[in-house]
């Protein structure tokens, strides 16, 4: 874990424009069949058909039901890997694709005594999502797709299924040009790890596959925590002494410029939070390349640290918290369960720490930070005036729908992945962020205004003129949005001069 980055991974997988016609926007809801029968999580996630890469013809489809146990509804394999790779002239993903194919064979050979037994539980299956790094260099997308997956031993999302690829890339926040392997539990689709590429490179033989992370508590308990240079006490502490504290686990390095910029901000917010009486402690986990650099880095820190010489402990903690880049701040509750993996973003948005410990909310105020998430997933947004009473009204009508949508979801679990997909709920008071969004989408300045905005699909819908915004009407609007029964319009920023309404 040594990557230094300013931002979290963002959805930027490229899909050719020739595949992204308006016809793909008129989508049947993935949550139900035509007779209203509930689909399996595999069907909702991957669709009803995948391509068998082992066949030379790209039109050789496999019905997703063929890998689902009729009795349990679970996938007939222990682990599913969603592999996002990118076609480009440099073929930068090819080396890892070959290594993944070897891992795939090694893992499955361990329990393949009878390859002809179709009822046998497979250890590992891969669903390949092919994207493009530079579409201008590709002359024939179908041919390049075929060559990319030809003779691979697994399954792939069809080349023409633009909407499916868009949903998967935004769901898992895939970074353009970077091969990514997400491992899911076959039994229910919950995430085992988002760092499958890193795990496979470190363990090419798959001896510890599928690399299920341990609970962070076991690593935190594995030895003393030392004081940093600016801490009032030099006495080491044991994890047990922090049992009543909310903890921030801070992954950083002296050589990383964004870390150097963020550390003073974290120190300031840390002190403000503690001055208000909160039981808050930070534990520094270093990615420094030398002990000398480590000592310089910790000199100004007023909190605790894991010793530099305990490299294995530091690596285990990064793995347990699925840390992919630095700087990262993970907030843990007193029982060491994760509150948020996005502590850095929360702190930058709230430097005073007024919303500490930044527990997840069902309905959020649309700020600049949250506006970026609109590019990853659809949202229900109510535009209101800036007064407190209007914001309270917005929350009162949105919250019941948000609670109904999230009722089966735990407060936060890094291994949990909602098989229904992600729908965000926001209140947008008058201000710069709301004005920019209105202009981007093509909305007038009416308030209150209830909208469904899906930037990844390039569409939006508004509640019909004159309709009263109530708890019930909002719920009906949300239901219609999820079933794709709203009157969608093309977002202004994506719309050509001759395009108006997408479909009714």
TrEMBL record:
GO MF assignments: thioredoxin-disulfide reductase (NADPH) activity
Q: Which Gene3D superfamilies match?
A: Glutaredoxin
**SUPFAM superfamilies, per the entry:** Thioredoxin-like (SSF52833)
Q: Where is the Thioredoxin domain?
A: 172-368
According to its record, what are the GO cellular component terms? nucleus
Q: Where is the signal peptide?
A: none
Organism's domain of life?
Answer: Eukaryota
- A Pfam family annotated for this UniProt entry: Thioredoxin_8
Q: Cross-referenced InterPro entries, in alphabetical order?
A: Thioredoxin-like_fold, Thioredoxin-like_sf, Thioredoxin_domain
Please, one GO biological process term? Answer: negative regulation of Wnt signaling pathway
Task: Name it.
Answer: Thioredoxin domain-containing protein
Provenance organism: Aphidius gifuensis (Parasitoid wasp)
């Amino acid at each position: 874990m040594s990557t230094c980055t300013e931002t979290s991974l963002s959805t930027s997988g490229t899909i050719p424009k020739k595949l992204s016609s308006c016809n793909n926007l008129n989508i049947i809801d993935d949550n139900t069949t035509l007779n209203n029968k509930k689909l399996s999580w595999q069907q909702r996630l991957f669709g009803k058909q995948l391509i068998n890469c082992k066949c030379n013809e790209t039109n050789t489809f496999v019905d997703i039901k063929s890998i689902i146990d009729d009795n349990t509804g679970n996938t007939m394999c222990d682990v599913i890997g969603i592999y996002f790779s990118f076609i480009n002239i440099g073929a930068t993903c090819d080396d890892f694709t070959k290594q993944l194919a070897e891992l795939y064979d090694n893992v499955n050979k361990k329990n393949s005594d009878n390859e002809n037994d179709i009822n046998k539980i497979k250890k590992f299956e891969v669903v390949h999502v092919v994207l493009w790094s530079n579409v201008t260099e590709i002359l024939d997308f179908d041919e390049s797709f075929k060559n990319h997956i030809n003779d691979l031993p697994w399954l792939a999302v069809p080349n023409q299924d633009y909407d499916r690829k868009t949903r998967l890339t935004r769901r898992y926040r895939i970074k353009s040009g970077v091969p990514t392997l997400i491992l899911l539990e076959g039994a229910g689709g919950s995430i085992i790890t988002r760092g499958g590429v890193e795990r496979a490179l470190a363990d090419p033989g798959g001896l510890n596959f599928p690399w299920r992370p341990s609970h962070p508590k076991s690593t935190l308990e594995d030895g003393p925590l030392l004081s940093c240079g600016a801490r009032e006490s030099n006495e080491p502490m044991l994890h047990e002494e922090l049992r009543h504290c909310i903890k921030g686990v801070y992954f950083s390095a002296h050589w990383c410029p964004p870390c150097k910029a963020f550390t003073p901000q974290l120190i300031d917010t840390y002190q403000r939070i503690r001055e208000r009486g909160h039981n808050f402690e930070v534990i520094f986990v270093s990615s420094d390349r030398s002990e000398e650099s480590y000592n310089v880095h910790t000199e100004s820190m007023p909190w605790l640290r894991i010793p530099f010489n305990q490299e294995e402990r530091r690596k285990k903690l990064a793995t347990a918290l699925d840390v992919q880049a630095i700087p990262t701040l993970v907030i843990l509750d007193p029982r060491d369960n994760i509150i948020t993996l996005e502590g850095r973003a929360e702190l930058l948005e709230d430097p005073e720490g007024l919303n500490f410990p930044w527990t997840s909310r069902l309905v959020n105020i649309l700020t600049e930070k949250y506006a970026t998430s609109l590019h990853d997933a659809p949202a229900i947004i109510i535009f209101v005036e800036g007064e407190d009473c209007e914001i309270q009204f917005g929350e009162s009508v949105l919250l019941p729908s948000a609670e109904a949508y999230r009722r089966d979801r735990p407060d936060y679990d890094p291994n949990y992945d909602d098989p229904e997909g992600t729908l965000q709920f926001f209140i947008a008071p008058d201000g710069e962020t709301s004005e920019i969004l209105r202009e981007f989408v093509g909305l007038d300045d009416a308030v209150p205004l209830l909208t469904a905005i899906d930037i990844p699909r390039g569409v939006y819908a508004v509640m019909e003129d004159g309709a009263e915004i109530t708890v019930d009407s909002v719920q009906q609007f949300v239901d219609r949005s999820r079933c794709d029964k709203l009157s969608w319009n093309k977002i202004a920023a994506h719309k050509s001069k001759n395009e108006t309404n997408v479909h009714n």
